Fold this sequence. Notes:
Number of strands: 6
Radius of gyration: 15 Å
Strand content: 25-35%
Order of helices and strands: HEEEEEHEH
Helix content: 25-40%
Oligomer: single chain
Largest sheet: 4 strands, mixed
Strand order of the largest sheet: 1-4-5-6
Amino acid sequence: MSEKELLASCIQYLKLKRIFHYRQNTGALVDKERGKFLRYGVVGGTDIVAVIKGKYIGIECKVGKNKQSPGQIEFEKNLVEAGGIYLIIRDVQTLAELL
């Protein structure tokens, strides 16, 4: 299973359970017309944000031996210090168990 497929499965699960969530896209690109580097989203931000009973839950999807980037590690640290929950999910069953 690819991370894209895992992400889609997690989003489907959250929809079925009627858990408020949204896909958080992050990345960067070069605007060739303006010659500018553009970044969107939060560096290291999780793939999915869910809110359950007022609690911010960041969900990062990883498959195989894929690991967090330095930006993701920093985001996790900051989120947890702020009182949020950070989950690294490798299969939908684990997401269901943790939520």
